[in-house]
Amino acid sequence: MATDTPFPETAPKRGSGAKRTRKAAFHLGGIALSLIVTLLGLIAITFFIGRVVPIDPALAVVGDRAPKAVYEAARVQLGLDKPLIVQFVNYVKAVATGDLGMSVSTGRPVLQDLKEVFPATLEMATLGILIGIALGVPMGVHAAARQGSWTDQIIRVVGLAGYAIPAFWLGLVGLAVFYARLQWVDGPGRVDIAYDGLVTPVTGLMLVDSLLAGETDIFFNAIGHLVLPASILGFFSLAYIARMTRSFMLDQLNQEYITTARVKGLPERVVLWRHAFRPILVPLITVCALSYAALLEGSVMIETIFSWPGIGNYLTVALLNADMAAVLGATLLIGMVFIFINKLSDALYDVLDPRAR
């Protein structure tokens, strides 16, 4: 008599769903614990470095001519009279609630300052890394495919130039040539003074906010100011990405499966991009992620030269004014960006590499 009961070998295993759920929960818990430990370590390093540098936060607040009683009152208000470990615990509690202290330079909460300056750096670094990836990856693949040719030599020289040329020199030359001489781009700043303050900040990204406001004139003016500093940052990331792509591709092109693909008569374009390029995607993601993070935290010199109101310029002013609350807050934000980008690249590994899953 026929029944609807499935055969034992085809019946689903009991508890398999619960086991997968527990495994996923443990995985997420491990990620959360790793994030917490990393953030605590970052906060600790940032805090203790800020305490060992020869800068007195209380003196920066009251000035070097303030009476001793005023100076001592400032130390008590800032909590500097307490033991170092107590200061660290109080700092962790404050950071957990979003309190990064008050900036001496601006007289405002550091968190509010960072919300205003970080989008400017994010906008410039994002365009820079897009330029670096769009040009650096094809250049690296092209150089590896034609190893030893004159094009390979030129691309390698470009890569070396990206490491050797100082950022401040290239920025000054770019302003002198493309802005002052040829007038192809606009000068320092994010927009012209006439447009400053006309767009209500929504995302903090000038290109996005100007489009949302329907201000096309401000949008194109912002592009004119952004293209040169972003291109300079893109050149430095391009040099690194092209060199690493070339190195990864050379390793793949020497594998036997590439020789087999060529013997089968596959077009060289298919061999390069479908067979040799796909295996290097995972390490290339790490290269691009590190390059992007470096642009976010390493654009101090470019922002200073171009008067770009980003986190690099903010950090420079804070250091010059001995504004330790702003310095610690900006450093902490940069470290958190590194952590986020690393975790994002790890997540992309699972998508692109089945072995990671």
Overview of this protein structure:
- With 357 residues, this protein is an all-alpha fold.
- The chain folds into two domains: 17-96; 110-356, MetI-like fold (Orthogonal Bundle).
- The chain has 15 helices and no strands.
- The protein has helices at residues 16-52, 57-62, 68-78, 84-96, 110-145, 150-164, 167-181, 206-212, 216-253, 256-263, 268-276, 281-297, 300-305, 311-320, 324-352.
- Helix 5 (110-145) packs across helix 12.
- The radius of gyration is 26 Å and the shape is globular.
- The two termini are 44 Å apart.
- This is Peptide/nickel transport system permease protein.
- It is a multi-pass membrane protein.
- Belongs to the binding-protein-dependent transport system permease family.
- Its main location: membrane.
User: In terms of structural class, how would the helical and strand content be classed?
Assistant: mainly alpha
Envelope shape: globular
Helices and strands, in N-to-C order?
A: HHHHHHHHHHHHHHH
* Architecture (CATH level 2) name of the largest domain: Orthogonal Bundle
CATH topology of the largest domain: MetI-like fold
Instruction: Please report the number of helical segments.
Output: 15
CATH class bucket of the largest domain: Mainly Alpha
Relevant CATH superfamily of the largest domain: MetI-like
Termini separation:
44 Å
* Number of discrete domains: 2
